């Protein structure tokens, strides 16, 4: 069975389900989440997406991102995917939600109602190589400088969410 995403309206109310790739081909608004993990040093854990991902392969992004399955809460899905992608789990706190739309050169469109969560983790990281090409902790200053100097090295949603994440984590 192909993975399905939860279609939503602008208020994040579920309106149906659709096969994931069809939703990305049609650019239909669907529910997603992005997890930003920090360590006790205040460094952010970034992942470089696997090179053969269906879009944004090889780009740097937040610790984990995905879509909840039909019938699954955002929180449950975030914990599931954090473990599947990065090989660990940690307590997560919701920060904010936002909607974005990005068209990619391969004809796919991300149109997501994105729930942004954060957590703290200092342990062993064991990423799935089919999901993650590389990972690293970076200081907020270093991420900010790299993002300003080379925005094309980062996913579109990371570029949009990062400033808001930093604002909420440093208040």
TrEMBL record:
It holds the Pfam family NUDIX. Pathway: Isoprenoid biosynthesis; dimethylallyl diphosphate biosynthesis; dimethylallyl diphosphate from isopentenyl diphosphate: step 1/1. The lineage of its organism: Bacteria, Pseudomonadati, Bacteroidota, Chitinophagia, Chitinophagales. GO terms for biological process: dimethylallyl diphosphate biosynthetic process; isopentenyl diphosphate biosynthetic process. Belongs to the IPP isomerase type 1 family. The active site is at 65, 112. GO terms for cellular component: cytoplasm. Coiled coil: none annotated. Residues 28-160 form the Nudix hydrolase domain. GO terms for molecular function: isopentenyl-diphosphate delta-isomerase activity; metal ion binding. Its EC number is 5.3.3.2. InterPro entries: Idi_bact, IsopentenylPP_isomerase_typ1, NUDIX_hydrolase-like_dom_sf, NUDIX_hydrolase_dom. It comes from Chitinophaga oryziterrae. This is Isopentenyl-diphosphate delta-isomerase. It is an enzyme of class 5 (isomerase). The keyword Translocase does not apply. Keywords: Cytoplasm, Isomerase, Isoprene biosynthesis, Magnesium, Manganese, Metal-binding.
